[in-house]
Here is the input.
Amino acid sequence: MTSHSDPVSTISDNPYIPIMAEIQSIDALTARESLFKVLLPEPLKHRPGQFVMAGLPGIGECAISISSGPQSGKLLEMVIRKAGNVTGVLHQLEPSDVISIRGPFGSGFYLEDFKQKNIVIIAGGLGLVPLRSLITPIMDHKSDYGLVQLIIGSRTPKEALFRHQIQQWKKLPDVHIIELVDDTDFQDWDGDIGLVTEPVQQLTIDEQNTLLVLCGPPVMYKFVLLEFKLHFTIPDNQIFVDLERRMRCGLGKCGHCQINHVYCCKEGPVFRYSQLNDLPEALS
Ligand SMILES: Cc1cc2nc3c(=O)[nH]c(=O)nc-3n(C[C@H](O)[C@H](O)[C@H](O)COP(=O)(O)OP(=O)(O)OC[C@H]3O[C@@H](n4cnc5c(N)ncnc54)[C@H](O)[C@@H]3O)c2cc1C
Ligand code: FES
Here is the structure.
């Protein structure tokens, strides 16, 4: 498998200085999350799984995953949850308002590693947001990849994201998607009910040719990995985890995202599980 060490290449020449980008649309996806489409002055040239620092001058900025695929050109898609100070103000904005963007930052996924492989992607909650930047290019060029199996979990139907797009993905050959909710909360739901760990044993796994990708709430990683390892043996370097830590600079300078000697913003947020063997804190 290839090893990669690309230098930081950000949209502005100085990675500390943001560019200003115009909001094209803001669409509510759930009560707390909205899809922001933002027009950049030039293409972001990101890899799937990378993130930007998005914000407003005088307010602040926060790490937000890039949800659009690498072919999206000047259009950047982000799903922003109204969580606190910065995201609260971003949610008050309207189309044609401008926001600041720095990045793209972080390791991300290298699509060439995934070509001709069977791929299992397990997403919990907002974990689908960064993984959509990986899933979209895979689905757009499905014949370049093997069997793709997705397990997508949400707490309730109201919180399930991108359902229309998921229905389109389901129509592609050699794609198998299981959508689950923890609880229907008395709403209509045509998927399964349960935790994302439950369908793991039904997966079709060719142990030498399968890559596993996980992103979700911290508690999910431990239980999914336990369940996966109970039924299948795939090497740790074929497992990718997408981790979140508090971030400020995005550049490996401030130490906010540090786990021991590892800077999550620079070496992550996407790690191979084999990179985390001496970092048990990373998944706790
Ligand atoms: C690599 C990365 C990608 C991210 N992608 C997205 C995304 O696509 N969409 C999105 O909505 N959010 C994303 N986040 C989370 C987002 O950056 C934080 O929620 C951010 O702090 C919100 O800023 P705020 O000023 O609105 O909230 P704050 O006022 O800073 O905090 C709001 C609440 O969230 C808690 N909090 C802050 N940061 C984190 C964190 N990293 N983990 C757990 N709790 C936290 C605070 O303790 C507080 O309770 C991502 C974070 C990282 C590190
Ligand atoms: S966010 Fe500053 S070192 Fe990672």
Summary: The CA atoms of residues 86 and 217 lie 21 Å apart. The longest strand covers residues 19-28. The two ends are 27 Å apart (CA to CA).
